[in-house]
Amino acid sequence: MHVAMIGTGYVGLVSGACFSEFGHDVVCVDKDADRIAKLKDGKIPIYEPGLEALVERNVRADRLHFTTDLKDAVPKADAVFIAVGTPSRRGDGEADLTYVFDAAREIAGALDGYTVVVTKSTVPVGTGRKVKEEIEKASGGASFDIASNPEFLREGAAIEDFMRPDRVVCGVENERAREVMREIYRPLFLNETPVVFATLETSELIKYAANGFLATKISFINQMADLCEAVGADIQQLAKGIGLDGRIGSKFLHPGPGFGGSCFPKDTRALVSTARKSGVPQHIIEAVVQINEDRRARMVEKIVAACDGDVNGKTLAVLGLTFKPNTDDMRESPSVGILPALLEMGANIHAYDPEGMDEAAKNEALDGLLYCHSAYDTMKGADALVIITEWNQFRALDLDRVKKLMKQPVMIDLRNIYKPEWMAEAGFRYVSVGRTTVP
Ligand code: NAD
Fold first, then answer.
1. Rounded to the nearest whole angstrom, what is the distance from the C-alpha of residue 220 to the centroid of ligand 1?
2. CA of 86 to the centre of ligand 1 (A)
3. How crowded is residue 13: how many other Cβ atoms within 10 Å of its Cβ?
4. pLDDT band for position 300 (50/70/90)?
5. Is the interface score ipTM higher than 0.95?
6. CATH annotation of 2-198
7. What is the DSSP letter of 322?
8. Domain 208-289 in CATH: superfamily?
């Protein structure tokens, strides 16, 4: 099959590379000339484990190509995937569909022969149908079908998620489009990956419902963590105690500073907006959004309290800036909600992140951070150490060394990656989430 992938971000580049790994001929298109130049040069513009080797292998096999010229890619394609960004619109939280419709119009002008145009971007219910109208208007009678194929990959594990997904969801309107989608995903069919065929609208809504549900688990466990702190219970034991119930499941029950990244915050907001507009408000998701927004301030309070109620003039060593490990993505990261408030209160912040510092440095809200070369570099003379992202390399710090470097041994672990008993034994004042503070 010939595939054109419009947008080479976290989703487009991974999906394009994986489709080429399936054996399809893939052309990835991006408007960003810099990004395409880098890709042509063998450089990967984002950090995603395993992606460089995957791209290199498929470029060498002549199955994966990059261009800025959409007209080069679309006419030959059996399927054109739209994988451009759908960020939150300022003010109302709705998904901004400018990039999607711009791409649709450009595609319309380049279609040649029967093509399936697939929205892989996360788009509110009804968008596929509007894309179809837009293309009908702009193409003057091209032969095409529309499909919806939301993506569920997680940054940091994107290739594994794409190659071995829990399921693939395809929204189609007829058998012809279904056949094209089936052919594209044939290697996964052979692996017996469940493929859910649905209507366009259902497929679009499945993506929001999935993210809404996962975000609900996170806000739920975060509120339970607060309750544990108030009554002297332990959230880790609680999560285990409920998670072993197969109906609940143990995943996504990790308390912390709240969800972030480029999907959950914007998708929950967009779901709230769609639901309100449809006259069916989703009260659970509304609460989930609110709880998550309040979470950042609660984490700030926790850090300040651990610093005896005042961070003015104090030095905080901060480990981890990205919204989760194994990515360089800083979009809506908890660090962006927490650190500016601490800077405002007069804290000096010495930060380190293995992959996120270049992106962090572009974010004005974080101006004033001092970026360090290693985890231990942040700790020299620090009054407290704050773990915001649970990168593996932060899980086994040499606690004696940490203690020697710091002015005083205080750790605020917003990811619960240490055990209170060990930390007490190592001589630390240790504050975590949903567990008793020690000593
Ligand atoms: P991104 O911002 O990383 O990448 C989007 C890319 O599209 C950019 O490189 C941009 O230059 C390019 N682009 C925009 N308009 C274009 C056009 N007309 N022609 C060519 N290129 C164009 O976005 P992303 O994180 O990959 O997300 C893409 C979509 O996938 C979003 O709807 C998102 O919600 C969804 N999604 C993301 C993830 C994730 O983990 N990032 C997971 C599942 C779904």
1. 29
2. 7
3. 27
4. very high
5. yes
6. 3.40.50.720
7. S
8. N-(1-d-carboxylethyl)-l-norvaline Dehydrogenase; domain 2 (1.10.1040.10)
pLDDT digits (tens, 9 = 90+) for 25-68: 999 999 999 999 999 999 999 999 999 999 999 999 999 999 99
Q: At what angle do helices 283-306 and 334-344 cross, to 10 degrees?
A: 40
Is 30 one of the annotated binding-site residues? yes
Distances from the Cα of 74 to the Cαs of 67, 70, 109, 185, in angstroms?
11, 6, 9, 19
Start-end of CATH 1.10.1040.10 domains in the chain = 208-289
Task: Look at the domain 295-431 and name its fold.
Answer: Rossmann fold (3.40.50)
Question: Could you tell me if the CB of 13 is within 6 A of ligand 1?
Answer: no
Instruction: Please write the tens of the pLDDT for every residue from 232-267.
Output: 999 999 999 999 999 999 999 999 999 999 999 999
Residue identifier of the C-alpha nearest atom 4 of ligand 1: 9
Cα(238)–Cα(225) distance, integer angstroms? 9
What is the CA(260)–ligand 1 centre distance, in A? 16
Is residue 228 part of the annotated active site? The answer reads: no
Identity of the residue numbered 347: A
User: What is the model's pLDDT at position 358?
Assistant: 97
**pLDDT-derived band at 182, boundaries 50, 70, 90:** very high
| CA gap 232, 269 in Å, rounded | 33
Annotated binding residue 155: yes
State mean pLDDT over 2-18.
98
User: Which phi-psi region, left, alpha or beta, contains residue 399 (left: φ > 0; alpha: ψ -120 to 50)?
Assistant: alpha
Neighbours of 129 (CB within 10 A): 15
Annotated active-site residue in 170, 263, 307, 372: 263
Whether 140 shows a pLDDT value over 90: the answer reads no
Q: Is 86 annotated as a binding residue?
A: yes
- Average pLDDT across the chain, whole number: 97
